């Protein structure tokens, strides 16, 4: 598979990917070139420069994953990617410190007029009277958006003896208390702050959040910082407020259109410190995001789950650690139960018993759906599109959780209903190895790999021999065999692991053997 590493992402990404993938590096990637070359690639890693638009995605016939070596995914059309089942992932933590420290640097440079003092001194002007700044100590800093970077700024600003007031409508009050930060409404921040810094994504709600109306209500001489996204502070309104003196100074790293055009009103505004989107530009951050994004892209291309995918239900790293060993088993249970069934799938129930009932199992249920649908659909089903594929087919999905369990520490029971009846399989982990432990109430111990042939049969001597001889006639080797017990009198189930390919015609012949009720092949190579 081929991966395109664009936008000057650190060479660390190439080091990580090149063992497994064919890697192409394009530090500069004009939009027309991206459109032209994207059909060749299975994966792409970008920073904010390349725009992965709907048009790019429509041409990306093989694309399975878009990795963002950074936080903001506003340069990627996530809706278009999700519709195509393309995983979009980011690297949300690698550049947090860099952006936090850049915000502090911007606040200090703006307060002490360092850029202009430096520039004029280089021109030979020794101007000590003109560049008298203000202190941070004792000032109120309004932080809008108290996420990773906002909290980091809060901590550092406290060390400068600033008073903090934060506004974040989605913030849990406990988190603010743990940080020792006072919270308030947007209006409280607007009215009380001497400095305001914004740290949230650009969304329809946050666009122009600071504008001429609320800038007019701020303290005269307020100082504003934007190291988040261009447009959260309206650029024309800010430029006007800098000219009028309502805003004493501003420090801006991000712009509505990048690179910054000379026509942008901020380019010529007074008392403003500008940097060309440098928040994440430290050696450490670029290595960090490249490592995280490339590991995510590699995992996605290998069909493994990705904890930083942004178009899937989020799963914490802690939960991921607990569920990871169950994912392959879950997929195999989905594949097995589907292979046992006939007719259109009406509903799928996944029941979790034991300790796993206490954890967030939604990704395991998605793995079951993936395993159930992949063998029967033309479109590749993955962790992103599995729930919507099930919905499109009107399959009712139900999760049941119960801490009670007999015989095992944890048990997953997958039941699938079609108009012809109900099939169920159960699985558990022995150590880290997944095992199918029951098929339609017959107790078995099956390692779900390669292909298995499942034959319910009458419980009488000679049945295994009959099936074995028929398969031997076609030179099909049986590498494993299990006979399942049940409380249902007179019936049994044999599960044969077979190495070789087997035709439907041979399976039909097995099912016609006297005493065999049915023969179903589960091909784990199809998931
Ligand atoms: N300048 C740079 O180079 C640079 C580097 C890294 C991140 N960023 C940007 O910084 C921003 C913050 O990044 P982060 O990692 O802290 O993100 P985060 O997701 O950890 O935090 C965002 C916070 O904003 C809050 N929020 C969302 N909508 C809000 C609203 N309407 N009003 C107030 N708060 C709201 C959320 O509740 C969350 O707490 C993002 O836009 C990101 O793209 C820029
Ligand atoms: O959202 C981000 O991570 C930052 O804006 C960094 O963007 P960059 O990778 O283009 O520097």
TrEMBL record:
It catalyses: (R)-2-hydroxyglutarate + NAD(+) = 2-oxoglutarate + NADH + H(+); (2R)-3-phosphoglycerate + NAD(+) = 3-phosphooxypyruvate + NADH + H(+). GO terms for molecular function: NAD binding; phosphoglycerate dehydrogenase activity. It is an enzyme of class 1 (oxidoreductase). The keyword NAD applies. The keyword Oxidoreductase applies. Residues 452-527 form the ACT domain. InterPro entries: ACT-like_dom_sf (IPR045865), ACT_dom (IPR002912), AHAS_small-like_ACT (IPR054480), ASB_dom_sf (IPR029009), D-2-hydroxyacid_DH (IPR050857), D-isomer_2_OHA_DH_cat_dom (IPR006139), D-isomer_DH_CS (IPR029753), D-isomer_DH_CS1 (IPR029752). It holds the Pfam family 2-Hacid_dh_C. GO terms for biological process: L-serine biosynthetic process. Keywords: Amino-acid biosynthesis, NAD, Oxidoreductase, Serine biosynthesis. Its EC number is 1.1.1.95. It comes from the Bacteria. Pathway: Amino-acid biosynthesis; L-serine biosynthesis; L-serine from 3-phospho-D-glycerate: step 1/3. NCBIfam families: PGDH. Catalyzes the reversible oxidation of 3-phospho-D-glycerate to 3-phosphonooxypyruvate, the first step of the phosphorylated L-serine biosynthesis pathway. Also catalyzes the reversible oxidation of 2-hydroxyglutarate to 2-oxoglutarate. Belongs to the D-isomer specific 2-hydroxyacid dehydrogenase family. This is D-3-phosphoglycerate dehydrogenase.
């Amino acid at each position: 598979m081929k991966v395109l590493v664009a936008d000057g992402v650190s060479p660390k990404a190439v080091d990580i990917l090149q063992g497994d993938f064919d890697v192409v590096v394009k530090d500069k990637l004009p939009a027309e070139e991206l459109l032209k070359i994207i059909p060749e690639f299975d994966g792409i890693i970008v920073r904010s420069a390349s725009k992965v638009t709907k048009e790019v995605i429509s041409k990306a016939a093989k694309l399975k994953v878009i990795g963002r070596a950074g936080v903001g995914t506003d340069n990627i059309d996530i809706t278009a990617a999700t519709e195509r089942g393309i995983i979009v992932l980011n690297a949300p933590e690698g550049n947090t410190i860099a952006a936090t420290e850049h915000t502090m640097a911007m606040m200090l440079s703006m307060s002490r007029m360092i850029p202009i003092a430096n520039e004029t001194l280089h021109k030979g002007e020794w101007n000590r009277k003109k560049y008298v700044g203000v202190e941070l100590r004792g000032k109120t800093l309004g932080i809008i958006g108290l996420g990773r970077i906002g909290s980091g700024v809060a901590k550092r600003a406290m060390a400068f003896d600033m008073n903090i007031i934060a506004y974040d409508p989605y913030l849990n009050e406990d988190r603010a208390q743990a940080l020792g930060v006072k919270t308030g409404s947007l209006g409280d921040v607007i009215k009380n702050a001497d400095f305001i810094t914004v740290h949230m994504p650009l969304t329809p709600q946050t666009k122009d959040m600071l504008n001429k109306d609320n800038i007019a209500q701020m303290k005269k001489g307020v100082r504003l910082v934007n190291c988040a996204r261009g447009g959260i502070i309206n650029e024309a309104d800010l430029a006007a407020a800098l000219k009028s003196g309502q805003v004493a100074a501003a420090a801006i790293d991000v712009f509505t259109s990048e690179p910054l055009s000379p026509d942008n009103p901020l380019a010529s505004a007074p008392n403003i410190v500008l940097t060309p989107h440098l928040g994440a530009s430290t050696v450490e951050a670029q290595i960090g995001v490249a490592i995280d994004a490339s590991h995510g892209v590699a995992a996605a291309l290998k069909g493994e789950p990705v904890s930083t995918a942004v178009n899937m239900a989020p799963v914490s790293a802690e939960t991921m650690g607990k569920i990871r060993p169950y994912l392959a088993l879950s997929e195999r249970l989905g594949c097995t139960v589907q292979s046992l069934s006939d007719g259109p799938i009406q509903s799928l129930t996944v029941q979790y018993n034991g300790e796993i009932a206490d954890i967030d199992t939604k990704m395991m249920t998605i793995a079951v759906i993936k395993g159930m649908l992949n063998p029967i659909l033309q479109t590749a089903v993955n962790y992103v599109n599995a729930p919507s594929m099930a919905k499109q087919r009107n399959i009712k999905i139900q999760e049941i959780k119960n801490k009670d369990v007999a015989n095992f520490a944890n048990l997953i029971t997958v039941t699938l209903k079609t108009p012809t009846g109900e099939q169920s399989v159960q699985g558990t982990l022995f150590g880290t190895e997944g095992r199918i432990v029951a098929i339609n109430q017959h107790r078995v111990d099956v390692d779900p790999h390669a292909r298995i042939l499942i034959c319910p049969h009458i419980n009488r001597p000679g049945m295994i021999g009959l099936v074995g001889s028929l398969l031997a006639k076609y030179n099909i080797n049986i590498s494993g065999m299990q006979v399942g017990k049940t409380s249902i009198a007179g019936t049994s189930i044999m599960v044969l692991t077979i190495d070789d390919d087997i035709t439907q015609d041979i399976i039909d012949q097995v099912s016609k053997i006297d005493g065999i009720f049915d023969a179903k092949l589960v091909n784990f190579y199809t998931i």
